[in-house]
Amino acid sequence: MSRRPRYLEVxxxxxxxxRAQGLGPGAPLPTEAQLTDRFRVSRFTVREAxxxxxxxxxxxxxxxxxxxxxxxxxxxxxxxxxxxxxxxxAHTQFxxxxxxxxxxxxxxxxxxxxxxxxxxxxxxxLRVPEGEGEPIAVTDVYxxxxxxxxVDRLASGREALFAQLGRLAGLEVGRVRQEIAAVAAGAAxxxxxxxxxxxxxxxxxRQYFDTAGEIxxxxxxxxxxxxxxxxxxxxx
Amino acid sequence: MSRRPRYLEVxxxxxxxxRAQGLGPGAPLPTEAQLTDRFRVSRFTVREAxxxxxxxxxxxxxxxxxxxxxxxxxxxxxxxxxxxxxxxxAHTQFxxxxxxxxxxxxxxxxxxxxxxxxxxxxxxxLRVPEGEGEPIAVTDVYxxxxxxxxVDRLASGREALFAQLGRLAGLEVGRVRQEIAAVAAGAAxxxxxxxxxxxxxxxxxRQYFDTAGEIxxxxxxxxxxxxxxxxxxxxx
DNA sequence: GAGTGGTCTAGACCACTAA
DNA sequence: TAGTGGTCTAGACCACTCT
Lengths: 236, 236
What we know:
The structure is a homodimer. By secondary structure, chain A is an alpha+beta fold.
């Protein structure tokens, strides 16, 4: 068996197919039987691959009817508990600007619930799908000055910034507070996201605290409404 | 084969186990081998059940190590009923239209993740501040037909519909799934909320399940962005 | 080394959809 | 009625964790 699970390779091949052939919403995908033939794998493996794509919101499946490309290829984020939060970067990349120590402007301070003039490391990042596609989010990240020794080693890529901070500075996440609102895209965000000004967006402001209760990082993400859906699943 | 998939029954039995035995975070669950013996099913069925629980965030699995109860999402305290979740609910009222049994339109069915043509009781409500002020949300509520005997006794007021259903029909909420997105206000919603068409809004689609895992109620709320913010506070 | 969960095969029957 | 995806069985080998 190869190092990478077969079903992930099949999923990747299907993603590439949809991209290359420019399949739009509603376009049919091959049936499971056709895929087992094409990839020379069992139905189990094909179904695992399709399950993966369905979980990503890329396809929809209906018994008796078939598999089609989903209406809105939106990224879906599930489960707001911290571990899942760190993992949702799975099929996306985060492109970072260099970090700079800056004073919070009054508007930013109000948004983040801090005092204006506080100094934080600030960087701006764009989250894009692996391969190709429209940006999914633009994020302003603020990192507490006590992490100064490691901020220059934060890298673009798949790993979440908070996970990198944990690895580099031995930080453990304790609590995450999120504030979700609908806003109209501003000028800078609209440009970076390649959308029109005023497009409805989800704005998610997060505050990360370590296990001692000290605030460590804050971020403000803006997601175009049609490219992102936030899902919470809770049990009593 | 029974009408209800075997793996859902296994999942439900395991949920009941965790509840009855009061298993806390980190407590080990039986191994897959033990569960195949106990329930007399194949490993596939056991794994589907465990996959279900993992997707709900109830358990965590690690190869070589075993399956344990997951750290509880801190969200849970906020979820028992909608008013506790929505901070403003204490000072608002909910004005209802009468419930009518209707077939889901294709668009609504897609939004709610159901099949078009399914028949549900439908009512539309407007949440307004006590005293005076602009509406805070407009909500379409869908109630499962099995509650037919009590839907006419649902009343406008401060008590959440789900709480009323619980009181009138002896229903207990088991799981709540919420899907949050940013959308532009449509014509009908804009009129009811007295905002302009295209105004950014938070759309929250909720699915309520009873303790047996059966879906009981669904709702779709639309909040003008500047009148509503959704806050999640999660603790590990 | 023993035991765990992760991946995978080759079958089978079923519920549902669409022609 | 033919074909789809959903469920399920009985096996197998593997990567990983713990002791």
